[in-house]
Amino acid sequence: MKLKSILSLALLLLTTVAFSQISNLRKAKTSYIKFSDVKSMGSPQLGRADLKAAHDALLKAIEHDKTKEEAETWVYYGLVNADLSLLEDNQSKADEYYRIASEAREKAVALDSEKAHADNLLVLDYSLAQYELNQGIKAWDAEDFLSAYKNFDRAEAFIPGDTTLLYYAGAAAVQGKDYTAALEKYTQLVDNEDFSFHKQILLDIPRIYIMQGDTVQATKYGNLAMEKYPEDSEIATQYIEYNLMAGNEEEVVGAIKAESAKNPGNKTLYYYLGLAYNALQDEASAEEEYKKALAIDPDYVDANINLGGLILNRGIDHWNHVNNQRDLSQQQYETEIKKAHEIFDIAFPYLQKAVDNDDKNLIALSNLQKYYQIKDNQAKADELQAKIDALN
Question: What is the pTM of this model?
Answer without folding.
Answer: 0.75
